[in-house]
């Protein structure tokens, strides 16, 4: 029978320790409410003794997040810290005190400059005191993966006898390797079950050598029934085990691990984006599960396989984790199969081999120039080809005169009236408009919306650099919502304002193309 693994999310504590990622109380609350939707079992809301602001945030979360996860916060093994945790979480429906104290020789002798016996007694006293306040107490043996095993076990044994209901084994500095860590958890699990089988065994892995997720999963395989993670793997230094990777890994290979979580996978992408946006921490494009390229395919071999059967190169369905759709990016590396699939949505008849080869060569030339080719580019390419051939009966969705081109744009950024002016072309017609906004990009998009007449909501806007130097290319990635449907679009240019305008127009043209297709 599959074991349920509890998930403690420490995005608001360990995750917020990333330099520059400080959140205000309202941002913390927003993330906490989303973590409830994600259905994590425990939210570690902060470190209340560190500041009044952190105390207030933890207390507010404890009061507001009801009918959902347990609420905990971190305390060192001292009375003042434990009191701060208790006072901040006592209003929660299901509060948990989390105590941490080192067990490795490095921590005991160098960090605390005390004897092993005195540190052990300190931990026991802390648990005993916490138990007078609340029934649920977690004890974390900091730097456990570098600790002498017998001293580590002695600590676990004594704090369990003192009343700890959860024992957490941290790989605090990412020192562990999966095989050794799995053996350590297996040994502790065996002894713990004989000592008190009601105590929950947990792990907290850091990613200093890129093994946090692997170490977490091998721990589950060896008996751990609780994992501590963060969204997008953020945290101290190289971060923590990524919640999305652990949850999807257990879902995908549930029979192997004989374990599962209750995480609502469809909420992963939304939660990931919220954390990234509020903390100002970009997600690497190739990040597993939540990166922009996690479900994007540009290799011709991969695109060919996907079009024949999605499971050829896709073991996780993007929609299962809340991603809108699979993305086939047309580049010079895309093969004939991907190109044929793309233009089959444009040309509604069998294409003669000669025409197809000519179109494909034209596409490759365009891809070499543009790097990435979008749907509306294919419409222009096909329209132009058949026009040059003198064939007006190609059964092509007619888009001439319906798609917008950017002719010119100008933005003015200031503290009073950020404004923008744009000039667009549609067929042989020219349009221009000016607008003010909350910033130059808002003004730019307002001017474009005034021209096209669509009620479009900007959902996400992101700029990244794709090359180096003075002539570096900037890529703008957008998500826009129109008629309750989300469209993803992007553009690349040396001018980020122009790239922003092009990306928005690409989205507008996608809407137009879809509407034309629906009319057929």
UniProtKB/TrEMBL annotation:
Top-level EC class: transferase
Catalytic activity: 3-methyl-2-oxobutanoate + acetyl-CoA + H2O = (2S)-2-isopropylmalate + CoA + H(+)
Molecular function terms, GO-annotated: 2-isopropylmalate synthase activity; acetyl-CoA C-acetyltransferase activity; manganese ion binding
Biological process according to GO: L-leucine biosynthetic process
Residue ranges of the region described as Regulatory domain: 405-520
Residue stretches making up the Pyruvate carboxyltransferase domain: 5-269
Residues reported to bind Mn(2+): 14, 204, 206, 240
Stored Pfam families: HCS_D2 (PF22617), HMGL-like (PF00682), LeuA_dimer (PF08502)
GO cellular component entries: cytoplasm
InterPro entries according to UniProt: 2-IPM_HCS-like, 2-isopropylmalate_synth_dimer, AIPM/Hcit_synth_CS, Aldolase_TIM, LeuA/HCS_post-cat, LeuA_allosteric_dom_sf, LeuA_bact_synth, PYR_CT
EC number: 2.3.3.13
Pathway terms, separated by semicolons: Amino-acid biosynthesis; L-leucine biosynthesis; L-leucine from 3-methyl-2-oxobutanoate: step 1/4
Key words of the record: Amino-acid biosynthesis, Branched-chain amino acid biosynthesis, Cytoplasm, Leucine biosynthesis, Manganese, Metal-binding, Transferase
Entry cofactors: Mn(2+)
HAMAP family cross-referenced by the UniProt entry: LeuA_type1
Free-text function comment from the UniProt entry: Catalyzes the condensation of the acetyl group of acetyl-CoA with 3-methyl-2-oxobutanoate (2-ketoisovalerate) to form 3-carboxy-3-hydroxy-4-methylpentanoate (2-isopropylmalate).
Family: Belongs to the alpha-IPM synthase/homocitrate synthase family. LeuA type 1 subfamily.
Self-association state and partner proteins as the record states: Homodimer.
Protein name as annotated: 2-isopropylmalate synthase
Species in which this protein is naturally found: Pelosinus fermentans B4
High-level lineage: Bacteria, Bacillati, Bacillota, Negativicutes, Selenomonadales
Gene that encodes it: leuA
């Amino acid at each position: 029978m599959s074991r349920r693994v509890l998930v403690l999310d420490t995005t608001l504590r360990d995750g917020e320790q990333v330099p520059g990622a400080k959140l205000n109380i309202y941002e913390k609350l927003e993330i906490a409410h989303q973590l409830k939707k994600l259905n994590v079992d425990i939210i570690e809301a902060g470190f209340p003794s560190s500041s009044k602001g952190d105390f207030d945030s933890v207390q507010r979360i404890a009061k507001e997040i009801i009918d959902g996860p347990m609420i905990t916060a971190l305390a060192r093994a001292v009375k003042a810290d434990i009191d701060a945790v208790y006072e901040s979480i006592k209003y929660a429906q299901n509060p948990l005190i989390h105590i941490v104290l080192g067990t490795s020789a490095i921590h005991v002798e160098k960090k605390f400059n005390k004897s092993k016996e005195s540190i052990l007694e300190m931990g026991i006293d802390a648990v005993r005191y916490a138990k007078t306040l609340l029934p649920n107490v977690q004890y974390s043996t900091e730097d456990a993966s570098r600790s002498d095993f017998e001293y580590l076990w002695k600590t676990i044994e004594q704090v369990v006898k003192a009343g700890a209901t959860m024992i957490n084994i941290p790989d605090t500095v990412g020192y562990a390797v999966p095989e050794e860590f799995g053996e350590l958890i297996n040994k502790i699990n065996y002894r713990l079950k004989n000592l008190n089988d009601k105590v929950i065994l947990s792990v907290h892995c850091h990613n200093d050598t890129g093994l946090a997720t692997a170490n977490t999963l091998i721990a589950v395989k060896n008996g751990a029934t609780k994992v501590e993670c963060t969204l997008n793997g953020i945290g101290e230094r190289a971060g923590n085990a990524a919640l999305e990777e652990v949850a999807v890994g257990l879902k995908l290979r549930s029979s192997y691990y004989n374990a599962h979580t209750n995480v609502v996978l469809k909420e992963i992408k939304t939660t990931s984006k919220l954390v990234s946006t509020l903390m100002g921490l970009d997600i690497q494009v190739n990040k597993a599960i939540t990166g922009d390229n996690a479900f994007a395919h540009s290799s011709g071999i991969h695109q060919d396989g996907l079009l024949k059967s999605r499971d050829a190169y896709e073991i996780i369905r993007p929609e299962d984790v809340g991603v809108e759709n699979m993305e086939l990016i047309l580049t010079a590396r895309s093969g004939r199969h991907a190109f044929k699939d793309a233009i089959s949505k444009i040309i509604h008849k069998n294409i003669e081999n000669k025409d197809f080869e000519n179109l494909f060569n034209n596409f490759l030339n365009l891809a070499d120039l543009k790097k990435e080719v979008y749907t509306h580019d294919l419409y222009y390419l096909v329209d132009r080809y058949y026009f040059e051939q003198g064939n007006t009966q190609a059964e092509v969705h007619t888009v001439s005169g319906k798609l917008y081109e950017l002719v010119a744009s100008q933005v003015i950024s200031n503290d009073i009236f950020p404004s923008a002016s744009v000039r667009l072309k549609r067929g042989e017609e020219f349009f221009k408009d000016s607008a003010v906004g909350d910033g130059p990009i808002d003004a730019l998009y307002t001017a474009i919306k005034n021209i096209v007449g669509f009620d479009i909501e900007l959902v996400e806007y992101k700029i990244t650099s794709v090359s180096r130097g003075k002539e570096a290319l900037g890529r703008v990635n957008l998500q826009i919502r129109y008629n309750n449907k989300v469209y993803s679009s992007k553009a690349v240019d040396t001018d980020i304002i122009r790239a922003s305008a092009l990306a928005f127009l690409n989205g507008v043209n996608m809407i137009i193309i879809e509407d034309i297709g629906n009319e057929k």
